[in-house]
Specification:
Number of strands: 7
Structural class: alpha/beta
Number of domains: 1
CATH architecture: 3-Layer(aba) Sandwich
CATH class: Alpha Beta
Strand content: 15-25%
Helix content: 25-40%
Oligomer: single chain
CATH topology: Rossmann fold
Number of helices: 9
Shape: globular
Distance between the termini: 28 Å
CATH superfamily: Phosphoglycerate mutase-like
Radius of gyration: 16 Å
Order of helices and strands: EHHEHEHHHEHEEHEH
Strand order of the largest sheet: 4-1-6-7-5
Amino acid sequence: MLIYLLRHGQTEYNAQKRYQGQRDIPLSPEGRAQLRQADLRPRTVYITPLCRTRQTAEVLFPDADLVEVRDLQEMCFGSFEGRNFIEMEKDPEYQAWVKANCESPCPDGETKAVFSERVCKAFSALVDQALADGEETLVILAHGGTQMAAMERYALPHADYYHWCAPNAGGYLLDARDWAEQRVLHLVRTVQYTKEAAE
């Protein structure tokens, strides 16, 4: 089975390098205009409750049924959401979080460990179900953090969490041939569903 693990298109927050987290920020007009229809036609695409994933999926996969999976949504950055690093560079809570490699709790938010566990539990359940159902392809369209958490835990070759943040509307094609025995996924290639990437 092949798995497509994709990130949503660009939002205003992405362009301004703001922590987006669980704020329900839509695609920007530019972000929507950059998207192109994908080269596959899945029956079902798994998205999150945040509208930027639905809006992206509607362009990439116009004929697919969209199924929301709450626990695949982005990390909750608490009081950092809506702000960027320039605005917070003198904030002692933000400085402490960055010094801890962004692994301590965000004020009113999640820790990286709690977030990764949430995502990986939901992700692995989808892979298990798709394999049990005999599916040939599984398509998940979520967030940069979702990709980083799942890829750090399951992808071969192994790489650090931050290595795996794909560009907007980009992501990974993975082969699940060893999933049942070893709980690993083999990276086949990266994918990018923007018009610029198709040229």
